[in-house]
Amino acid sequence: MASNKPRIKELEIVRAFAIMAVLMIHSTSEATVDIPLGSRSQVIYLVINKLSNFAVPVFVILSAIVLFYRYYDSWNVREALAFYRKRIQYIVVPYLLWSFFYYVYNQWLPTKDWSGVTIDWLQFADKLRWAETGYHLYFIILILQFYLLFPLLMTAVKYWRWFRKYWVVIAFLFQTAFYIYHYWVHSFEHPATLFGTYIGLFAAGGAIGMNYERFRNASKHIWWVLGSGILSGYTFALLFVLRQHDIDFGPPAMEFFFNVYAMTMAVSLLWIGVRLLEDLPGLSTLLMSMGAASFGIYFVHPALLSFWRYQFVFPGDSAAYQWSTLGAAVMTFTVPWLLVVLLKKWKISWIWFGK
């Protein structure tokens, strides 16, 4: 059975780095536009924000690794049914609850007045399609698409040798075609929420998952892979800085460096996780705690961050704004983590935080 396969402990460490990147993106997002454009502080915030953009694709890659690692050797109809039951229980239920929470919360927050809160169930149901009750919830819609596709992909990979051999190439070709269609034929309304934006990375993660032991043993390549990741990441960030000065290399360049950055960071962080488990067990335990709480942190942190920003409002060019932004980041990195760790002690916490 797939469940008997040993747990990949370093995945939790990578999840910790990825959720920290999510928190960094959201903590610095307003500073990239509130602070005067082109100033030193604004450029620093912009670079930090863009260097953190590996977060979502890394989570997509990790999901693929877990799925293909666990199910490849024992895939059948019974496994497929169990797979969907777990996804509904641990992904869809929390998504519905948090969507309703943010539907109400975001109406209440600006005025702190409950009289201004209205509940229109048809409107709420319509917003669920594209996760429009919370700016961060789009990831659930994205990952649910991969969960719907997974049984088809797994079956094809399992029983069609030619597909198993070329499916990563096929997936990246599909992702490229999706990108070309979006930019030069007809743009999609929610491209970041559609599976076509990440299908190549998902397939690459699946290939790693099916061959994980061989992948782990290839960690001697970490130096050039990590070097490539750092180089591509800073190039990706530099493109955004240059765009502010009307030097634009176009969307294809950004898309290329974004995908290279995401893939090399995912691979590098997995190998770094292996090293940390071997050499720094104390730090590994701390990171694994954060990784295990990452899904809950993802749901909780925007409520706290938004509340902070409504409480502390300062001009973008003031020192107070800088301190408030730093304080918000520290709070976002600590309080949601602590809350999730404490609340997950309840047996029914899966309703809110999945499993």
Automatic annotation (TrEMBL):
Record's signal peptide: none
Predominant location category: membrane
Location in or out of the cell: Cell membrane
Record has Transmembrane as a keyword: yes
Domain Acyltransferase: 9-340
Assigned keywords, A-Z: Acyltransferase, Cell membrane, Membrane, Transferase, Transmembrane, Transmembrane helix
Topology in the lipid bilayer: Multi-pass membrane protein
Positions of transmembrane segments: 12-31, 43-68, 88-105, 135-154, 166-184, 190-210, 222-244, 256-274, 286-308, 320-343
Origin: domain of life: Bacteria
UniProt KW Transmembrane helix keyword: yes
InterPro entries named among the record's database cross-references: Acyl_transf_3_dom
GO MF term set: acyltransferase activity
Family: Belongs to the acyltransferase 3 family.
Database matches in PANTHER family: O-ACETYLTRANSFERASE WECH (PTHR40074:SF2)
Protein name: Acyltransferase
